[in-house]
Amino acid sequence: MAAHKPVEWVQAVINRFDEQLPVKTGHQNNHTKYKFSHVISGLTNILKNVNNMRIFGEAAEKNLYLSQLIILDTLEKCLASQSKDCLRLDETMLVKQLLPEICHFIHTYREGHQHAAELRASASGVLFSLSCNNFNAVFSRISTRLQELTVCSEDTVDVHDIELMQYINVDCSKLKRLLQETVLKFKALKKPAQHAVINSLEKAFWNWVENYPDEFTMLYQRPQTDMADAAERLFDLVDSFAESAKRKAAVWPLQIILLILCPEITHIISREVVEESKANKKLFLESLRKALAGQGGSKQLTESAAIACVKLCKASTYINREDHSGIFLLVQSIVVDLKALLFNPTKPFSRGAGSQNADVDLMIDCFVSCFRINPHNNQHFKVCLASASPSTFHFVLVNSLHRIITNSDLDWWPKIDAVYCYSGELRLMFSDTLSRVMQGLHTHAPLRMTPVRKGLHTRAHSHSFSHQSFETPFVFLCKRTS
């Protein structure tokens, strides 16, 4: 239809733009709020109709995917622009229409679908934006499923709605509600549901820290008793759950997060003697240190300890050192062993053939965190820079420096100029890597020439990295350090 009347349609859009200028519309009224709800409802119906289409052939499938992505991205932008004084969307419409469609992509489109990751990421963005102003609707779905699972007798349970925790927008008060709800129901859940809660709560914590860093910083200036109480109670429940080495490995990353939410406890357990109610927290930290040093009796525990300790280091960078928190004493007690484990060129850290991506991400998180803790303690920097080190280490170094340059949100995070003195070595490393790629030498693992969808690509593939993913941050760094 637009093709037959191009001029009229363009003019209609221009007129609409003109009509929506604040000087002509004034303050938002109820009619505008109604129109917002109508837009969301209309987009939801379009998405539902597209999802129900029967398609045949590769071209049709691609068009379906593109259509779904466009609708999801439009929904995310609309929800993200919802003003604070706008009436919340009708709860019935959310629960019965929009949420099920969004959850369809997050839950159903998993492995095996060509565009699963992109659709899930886009749907997650919609859920995040939706939960900003309509948290209760999403929380109700999570809470209802938790309640259902407390009385479920089946061994195989559907935990998809529990996993919604990891995609929603949570500030301090919302995280507190999630913790308190979990405390009430964790013990009655089956093991699969408990595992889902453990994994999802940890991701919810990072959503909070990364989106509301000032709130987390304030937690260490003015501790919240009710937050700490919920976190400690859940720590104790999870601690009882962790009966075997396998379960300990599964819960340690969440347990360190729960301790971080208790500023006073992190200070108390650094003492030689602690009261009985805190003894299990001190024992947990001692077990963590032993496993990190290879004395835990299990490779699985050592790997879990590495993950937990990286999270401790990362969280500590969001706390101002001027607050003199006990968390920095905990970091000092593990950081040497942590770097020795992750940055050992003669025995690179590896959790197995299917974990290269996660291993690289863990090393990058550790590198960036250590730089922010102390930019002048750079032994691991020199290890990654060494020409004899594996190409994985070079990749970690470059992507870590790129993150340091492009993500400097907090005032106390050191700037990249602390490594300007290594600019010559960095350019030399890049030139050497590029030469090996172009000459096809086989003295190191090959670098694969594959396209990258978005700017910085930080995923490793069997220790073979995209030429573009390696080059993009490297060129950026060379320009910055020249």
Oligomer: single chain
Strand content: under 5%
- SS class: mainly alpha
Helix content: 55-70%
Order of helices and strands: HHHHHHHHHHHHHHHHHHHHH
Number of strands: 0
Shape: globular
Secondary structure layout:
Blueprint: H1 6-19, H2 22-25, H3 30-51, H4 58-80, H5 91-108, H6 116-133, H7 135-150, H8 172-185, H9 191-211, H10 213-219, H11 225-241, H12 245-260, H13 263-268, H14 276-292, H15 299-316, H16 327-342, H17 356-373, H18 379-385, H19 391-406, H20 423-439, H21 467-481
Helix pairs in contact: 3-4, 3-5, 4-6, 5-6, 6-7, 7-8, 8-9, 8-11, 9-10, 9-12, 11-12, 12-15, 14-15, 15-16, 15-17, 17-19, 18-19, 19-21, 20-21
Organism: Oncorhynchus kisutch
Protein name: Neurofibromin
Keywords: Phosphoprotein
Task: Report on this structure.
The protein is an all-alpha fold and 482 residues long. The chain is 66% helix and 0% strand. The chain has 21 helices and no strands. It starts with 5 loop residues before the first helix and ends with a helix. The model is unreliable at 446-468 (pLDDT under 50). This is Neurofibromin. Keywords: Phosphoprotein. InterPro entries: Ras_GTPase. It comes from Oncorhynchus kisutch (Coho salmon).
